[in-house]
Every structure is written in C-alpha cells, then in structure tokens.
Amino acid sequence: MTAASTIKAGAALPPFVIESVSPEAMQEWSVFLADPNPIHLDVDVVKSKGLGDKRINQGPINVAYMMNMLMAAFPGCRIESMDSRFLDNVYEGDRAVASGEITAVEGNRVSCDLKLDVDGRGTVNAGTATIII
Amino acid sequence: MEDFPPAPDVAGTSLDGTGTFTISTDENAALCKSTGGKPASDGTAHPIYYYIATQVAMGKSVAGVCETCDFDVEDGPMMGSSGVRFARQLMVGQDYKVTGEILSLVRKKSRKLGVMDVLTYRLRLHPAEGGDAVLETDNVWVLPRKELAA
Question: What is the complex's ipTM, to 2 decimals?
C-alpha cells in the first residue's frame, strides 16, 4: 500500500489477520488495563453469566487489531483520529480479520472505513479513521 | 412518557487523575506482540495506549465510574464505542497525566437490552510536566438496568 498511485478512494486496505485470538493475550491485557474482569480470564465465570463458553477478548484489543491493519497498510503513518463501535464480542479461538477501505484522500490525509470480522459471525467492530501519511 | 425514573445526574463529574502513567519499553513490546504486531523503532508507542493510559490513570476505576452512576460493575457494563483524536503520537518513556469528566448519562429503552443507561465520558492525556493534551478520547458505555426491566 506504499505506492502513491494505489492510495485513492475506493482502494481496499490489505487485511490484518489474527488466526486464533489468544487467551494468554487476554491475561496480559488484564495487567495492561489494570482490570482483572474475570470474563476475560475464567471460562466458568463466562458460563455463569450466560455469556457463552469461551473467554471474551477485551474490547480495546479489537481496536488494536484495526490499528495494526492501518499501520501495516501505511508504514510510518500517524493516526490522527479513529472511532470504533463495538457490535459483538470476540472470543478466544476466533479468527479475526481487520480490513478497511479508503474513503477520501486530501493531501497527506487519508480517511478510511474500518471493520473487524470474525469467521462465522461477521462484523464485530466497525469504525472510521483518518491518518497522516 | 416512560415509566422509569431518570438516570442519576452525573454530567460534569471530574475524572481527573492524580497519578501519572508511563509506557515502558518492555510493556509496549509485549503489547505489540500480543496483538500480532511489532514495536516501532522510533520511540513511539502503540496508539492503543490512548485507551489504556487514559483508562488506567483517570481519577476513578471502572468500578468507581459505575458506582458514580449508581450501577454495580458486577451487572456487566458494555463498551459501546470509543473515539480518539491525537494531537501528537504517544512516546515510550514519557510520563503522562489524565484530565476528564463525565459528559452525560442518558436512560433509554431498547428492544435488545431493555432499560439501559448510556454513559459518555471524555478523557485527555497530557504530558505530566504540563502542556496541551496529546490526545482526547470519548468513550461510550452501556449500563444495562436489569432492575428496571419490565
């Protein structure tokens, strides 16, 4: 995505794939976030709350996947703004794919639509971003 | 006219932090790895620290924010959305401090969740030594009000 000729409205951004969402990463993020919410750590708690039978990824990790997709598509870019909506949970073991599409280019400012899909359940996070390239 | 009481009046509640937050080289590297990425070589931190730094260093914990809204964190607050506007990139090793406030708490009824309160709060991250914010973020949480379910 580094060639200037490919940076134009309508162009798809290369997907960023997490082959299997990791419960070990959730443990690390409970420390990063200083938030030991057990729905991210303990399957029994998830079951007891009626939220399924797998640990639930912390929401900000899902945003980070989409940021990684942007930074991989535009090496050296700076994110100027980003908004994301949390539409559904991401669970341990999910295959998650962050993707996007350029919606506008003004000078060195590129606007994009973003989404995060998981296999079998569709889009779980969607948003927009403006980056400086 | 809805038959449930209004949400607590919490708009304007300060979320200013009292401590500082520093992104360490090791933690940034671990975080990047945990998301399938690699740390930058120019001293910038992963941009998701916008959320982590503000959330960790704001003046209340998540449970404390919920308590302010008269909501038990055990009842399961849900992230609705998160937005951020960066003025500058985040740097590893820089000390930051947080200012912020609750913008609104609005009670609504939805088909899926029943009665819920929609909490919006704004946080800003500043260099600890002072100066303009390097970012501003608005987070929206949904607080399902099971006790008000029909």
Answer: 0.94
How many C-beta atoms lie closer than 10 Å to residue A20's C-beta?
Answer: 10
**pLDDT tens digits along B61-106:** 999 999 999 999 988 899 999 999 999 999 999 999 999 999 999 9
Any idea where the domains of chain A sit in the sequence? 9-132
A28 chain-B contacts, CB cut-off 8 A: 30-31, 34
Question: Cβ of B51 and A18 within 8 Å?
Answer: no
CATH of the domain at B104: 3.10.129.10
Residue B79 belongs to domain spanning: 21-148
B64 lies within 8 A of chain A by CB:
no
Q: In chain A, positions 88-127, which contact chain B (CB-CB < 8 Å)?
A: none
Q: Which distant-in-sequence residues (6+ apart) come within 8 Å of B80 by Cβ? A: A85, A86, B118, B140, B141, B142
Is B11 contained in some domain?
A: no
The domain total for chain B is 1
**Phi, psi angles (nearest 5°) of residue B75:** -80, 0
Q: Which residues of A touch B37 (CB under 8 A)?
A: 64, 68, 71-72
Residues of B in contact with A16 (CB under 8 A): 36
In this structure, what token pair is assigned to residue B88?
Answer: 């500058």
In this complex, do B47 and A68 lie within 8 Å of one another by their Cβ atoms? Answer: no
Q: At the top level of CATH, which class does the domain A9-132 belong to?
A: alpha beta
How many angstroms separate the CA atoms of A61 and A57, rounded?
A: 7
CA distance A70 to chain B (A): 11
pLDDT tens track for B103-129: 999 999 888 778 999 999 999 999 999
pLDDT for B4 equals 84
